[in-house]
Please model this.
Amino acid sequence: MKIFIDSANLTDLEEGLKRGFAQGITTNPSLLAKEPKSSFEGHVNKILDLVKKYQPGIHLSIEVFSRNPEEIFKQAQEFVKLFNYPQLSIKVQVGWNELETIKKLSTAGISVNCTACMDITQALMAAHAGARYVSLFWGRIRDGKTDEKALIEKEDYLKRKVLDDKDFDPAFAVQSVRQFIDQNKLNSEIIVGSIRSVVDIRDAGLAGAHIVTVPPKFFPDMMKHFKTDQVVSQFLSDFEGWLS
Ligand code: E4P
Model:
């Protein structure tokens, strides 16, 4: 399982990249909107400067900001030209109308990260259409079970058997998509995003995610253990006792 950094914050990215464990970065429009106002091009170039300084050649996903398939196609092509970074992947949201765009972009040799996948069939169809990556949103898939804002839509989906209860289990979604990708020998990797805890990261990896993209706030905790602190203190105090 590879670890990506899910952030557009330059300080957090630098803290992660200089430690050498990250094999990629994912951003989205909401993450960019948390940063001080600047141009999209300028901010992505600053991210690329950090990548080139610390870990040249790692993956970078940036997302289109349109819901119109023709506009998405145009934006994706513009981004590829503008940033001229071979490991750039363009995040395109999953959807019936977007599928044709995913296919067109992939056929044109552009790496597509099909994002906002919340169930197995979405990710599977995107992978078949040529998406190089399918992003499954772990936390949001789980939230779907109790989402008060979409009660009517959810009831409708359940009634029509578009989904059933199993579809709100993110581990089941990731395991199933991984099984289909492997069975069909699809050239697509699963990125699990929407991580809500360190335990989610472990569970996503065990469920079969090729990549987990992690918000930087979890990195220090991923490297901590109270028993590590305890034993390191013990070793030092034993040694100091022996020296004196
Ligand atoms: C990553 O690709 C996603 O955009 C991101 O992880 C979504 O996370 P959220 O559900 O916390 O917004």
In short: The chain has one domain: 2-243. Strands lie at 2-6, 24-26, 59-63, 88-93, 112-117, 133-137, 189-193, 211-214. The mean pLDDT is 98.
